[in-house]
Amino acid sequence: MARRCYQRAVRFKEFTAVALVAVVLMSACSSDKPSPEKTGGYDASPKALNIIAGTEQETVANTIVKPWCQRKGYQCNITLKGSVDQARLLAAGNNDYDAYWFASSVFAQIGDTGGKLQDTKTMFLTPVVFAGWQSEMQKLGFAGRTDVAIGDILTAVESGQTKVWVTNPTQSNSGATALFGFMNYFAGNGPGKALTQEQLDSAPVEDGITRFIKAMSQTPPSTGTLMSQCVEQPGECRTMFTYEDLVIEKNQELVKAGKEPLVVAYPRGSLAISDSPLGFYPHNNGGDAAKKQILSELQDYLLKDKAAQTELLKLGRRPATSVGLTLDNPDTAVFNPAWGIQATINEQGIQYPSAPVIQAALDRYQTRYRRPVNTYYCLDGSGSMNGNGGWNGVKAAAHQVFDQDQAAVNFLQSHPKDITTVTIFNSGVTAGPWTVSGNDANALHGITNNINGYSPGGGTDMYTCLKEAGDLLSKPQTDDRKGLVVLMTDGRSETGHRSEALSALRAAKVPVVAIAFGSEPDASQLKELASATGGTYVQQNDLVAALRQAAGYK
């Protein structure tokens, strides 16, 4: 999955500078040697195509698109970004890319409010499914059925019969498409009718989606993260909402390893479909014609070439040119009926709402629908954070996460019942804790000011801070508030307080998002924390991206 500007187009422009400093991971499709025309992040060669694609497209990009580019003699530079970043860059008028390839039209609409993309075409289809371990789906009575209604799934989720995960809909396409599928259901809409602003404002939708979201056990910020963590923590993740094609990919790995597969059910009555739109972004210069021709050839290849279609089907992608979601002579090793995969789905996908309604719904997820969170940040303020530029990254990230105007750009606004605590550590707790209850913009900006005013120094003992976090979050929480610890460090920690910290965190039963920055952190220490708490380990040298990702766990 990330978007925002119908009425906020001006706001995006204000943050173009932020978008431009994002790390760009370019992959050369035909050669590792850049063409002579390439300057900075943009390759202006008429034989080069610069594509920004959703992380969901990684497998297709690596196995189908890059080999095609190489055969054709084109230089294809493919940057993988989350939905939020894609939409932000598009809305900001970023000129580093010739084409945008979203996972679904939900975030494409949010980013392309100015109608800049041209010749946008759906490349393939994949439905969002309710998936779970085979034994769990059998227990729920969904295995082997082709008629599981969305109401049946809702009953299982809200009754607590299963521990279910979904990605944060403000950060990921799979979560957003699931969100709008259920909103359509609560609004009483059939597949062909889009959710309206009036329906969004109605009590049935407001109350229904709030109950649904609060029933989620975890809401990771990306589809890939959800899938990998769910497989790693089968006791905590029993079912999930995700893409059909990712279930197919994961099941092929699980079965090969002799492990229990996942089984899917299609939410009948409100089926959401990811449509993978790929469109051209003009630069209004002499290079447009040649680059547009390359993109047109690529689109035709993916849509019409038999070999490409065969490869897409092997990856579990349904052809955009087929009749609905029906497959002719499917390979049952891929579209496996034993996994609940149905080759024939005679159901129209839901109609997605207009961009302003999408924007409003995602804003409300952050400030109204989701469970409030008590988040405790432990930030490394040791001396090494000065020399490696880490503290500048922390300050930039604080501006993005805590300042509410910037947080709105990233759909990371604070909830009125959130509690945010920030502590800085070196050899011990050296600054803070600074705590803000609620979402008062001035109070949260005060955290940014405190971080900006801190000067790194001293050694590294993260466990002292983590013990304080665990002790605080062990206390009874009101307002159905869940807990989250975000740790960032660039070094190996002293271990004098390790046992106390782990005990406190386990007692609190809160996940730790452990972010490793630079080349010196002890990955084993951070992975231990993530594993012991049901959290996640992140290796990331772009601290703005890392802390935004951590905040996305809300």
TrEMBL record:
InterPro entries on file: VWF_A (IPR002035), vWFA_dom_sf (IPR036465)
Membrane spanning stretches: none
Pfam families recorded: SBP_bac_11 (PF13531), VWA (PF00092)
Descriptive protein name: VWA domain-containing protein
SMART domains reported in the protein's UniProt record: VWA
Organism: Dactylosporangium matsuzakiense
Domain VWFA: 374-554
Lineage: superkingdom: Bacteria
